[in-house]
Amino acid sequence: MSKNPEITISNADMEKDALLRQIDKACDLMDQIYHDGYYPKMKVTRVWSEHNPVIEGEFAKPDVYRWYLKRELTKLVRAGAEIAISPSRETVSLNDPKLLDAIDEDHWDFTRKKLFLFRAERIELSLDRLQHYTGTSARDFQRYIMFTNYDMHVEVFKQRFPDCVQPAHNVQMPAYHHKLKDNLGLTLINIGVGPSNAKTITDHIAVLRPDAMIMVGHCGGLRNHQNIGDFVLASGYMRADGVLDASMPKNVPIIPNNMLNYHLQSVLDDENMTYRTGTVYTIDNRNWEFMKRRVVQEIHTSRSIAIDMESATVATNGFRYRIPNATLLCISDKPLHGKPKLGEAAQSFYQNSKGRHLDIVIKAIKLTKQNFPGGLPNASIRAMDEPLMGGSS
């Protein structure tokens, strides 16, 4: 352990440049503590909080999400908080059987402040899993993350950003990163098909505390007055995917972030695109047509306008982990109206829609960054007692 492994920041009236230097020193110390074999501990004392003035937590690999730590610590100190950084316990090896006890979400406290939402062991494991699944370093991930399940969207992304970081080898869910200073760029991940993959990747993405997650996928249109090529902007979800039922009761309302939807809708209107907002029905069975009566009854009951296999899963995990999220889908077939997804017609649709679809989302993210450079408001996805805690994190 290096000498003087503690630092405290508390002067809210500190000149801006001096404060930023202090925040950088605190982050440097966190990095050093971790590299010395200990988890860095952060203790935040908030004079404004009557019921919960002291909050604290541990971190692993803090250099990976340094941009987030710097932003949140700056907000806290400006609000009058005192920040103390010190070593905690020795790090736990990922091969240690005790790791499973530390990451068990059956004992997870979902009311914790977002800054301390995950235990250090959970952060460590998820960062390792991200590299395994995506073929890129966790340090390359940007604040704004898009999910697709088509190589054609990857092709467009690489055309738009030819210098993007790409996977070094074939992996299950390849990621591509258009990197900007302070992680203000874009990440696109081809997550493959199905809710299991969607849950897996968002479980691990969550520890990076991204500013937004957007599902950029295709769907079956369920209304008569929809056409192939029209867009669907989700305003809610019917959860028939099943993979998060044990973690999030199905009667909990899951909705996308209002400001993300506003920006997506603004771009759709500016581009004169045909779209409809409404409920997206997410199912875990690609061959749901083989049990048509049961599924169609739920579709009618929920008044869903589109069906897919990932959107509700991404949105539910976004809600669980308090990450602003949204869904923009493009209709590739109309299975209830005699227009199933067939090979030749699908390929023609894909070629005509892929660039337009991704460009709309990229433009919406650009608007979001301009209007909310400090991150989107997250009051709508805080834990129920979090307002009692106060503060900015």
Structure, explained:
This protein is α/β, with parallel strands linked by helices. It has two domains: 7-123, no CATH class; 135-377, Rossmann fold. 36% of the residues lie in helices and 21% in strands. It contains eleven helices and twelve strands. The chain has a five-stranded mixed barrel with strand order 8-11-10-9-12, surrounded by four helices. A four-stranded antiparallel sheet has the order 1-4-2-3, with helices on one face. A hairpin with an 8-residue loop joins strand 2 and strand 3 (54-58). Helix 1 (16-35) packs across helix 2 and helix 6 (195-205) packs parallel to helix 9. The radius of gyration is 22 Å and the shape is globular. The two termini are 29 Å apart. The model is unreliable at 387-393 (pLDDT under 50).
Give a brief rundown of this model.
With 393 residues, the chain is an alpha/beta fold. It contains eleven helices and twelve strands. It has helices spanning 16-35, 66-78, 99-103, 120-134, 151-160, 195-205, 258-270, 292-302, 311-320, 343-371, 386-389; strands spanning 7-9, 38-45, 54-58, 82-90, 144-148, 175-178, 186-190, 212-221, 231-240, 275-283, 304-308, 325-333.
Layout of SSEs?
Elements: E1 7-9, H1 16-35, E2 38-45, E3 54-58, H2 66-78, E4 82-90, H3 99-103, H4 120-134, E5 144-148, H5 151-160, E6 175-178, E7 186-190, H6 195-205, E8 212-221, E9 231-240, H7 258-270, E10 275-283, H8 292-302, E11 304-308, H9 311-320, E12 325-333, H10 343-371, H11 386-389
Parallel strand pairs: 5-7, 5-8, 8-12, 9-10, 10-11
Antiparallel strand pairs: 1-4, 2-3, 2-4, 6-7, 8-11, 9-12
Helix pairs in contact: 1-2, 4-6, 5-10, 6-9, 7-10
